[in-house]
Amino acid sequence: MTTVPADAPGADPLSVFDRWHREAAGVIDDADAMVLATASREGRPSARYVLLRGITHEGVRFYTNYQSRKGAEIAENPSAAAAWFDGAHRRQVRLEGSILRLDPALSDAYFASRDRGHQLGAVASNQSHVLSGREELEGAYAAAEARFEGREVVRPAHWGGYLLAASTVELWTQRQDRLHDRFLYTHGPDGWDVARLAP
Fold first, then answer.
1. Residues 154-169: pLDDT tens digits?
2. pTM over 0.90
3. With contact defined as beta carbons under 8 Å apart, do 63 and 97 qualify?
């Protein structure tokens, strides 16, 4: 690992991100909101907000429908980028890397922790697919309620978690006169290499 600049936020960007996220959680609404960008096999990009559901030493976790547009794009092109912003502390984190499905046991555990209504919604929604109308969605939800009446909702096979395994992380902090602090961390065989970027 290269020498870390003395004014860098830390040697491990994911540990810094975890700390920044915890600091933001008590101050801003929607601290779990993270933009996820994926692309098709042909390179056509798309972006949307997802909920950040864990920061590990490897990257960040989120959960979704595997058959959604993002799921289809991940299956075709398992590279992605994410961006997170804390407006209270004027901080941003950008990540790029490969996308991997989480172990089913992790998806089961997270699914079991969700509100029952959210669980039923995951069963009912054929995410990203065209609906004939709101009635179709509400009918599918009612069918899911009836199917699991009196028992636990089972995680559907089409729903689960992903890890964005970060190969690069940028930590950004706003400064006066737009002389912002930007530190780019690149993961190599010996750990994280760190470089300061011009704002």
1. 999 999 999 999 999 9
2. yes
3. no
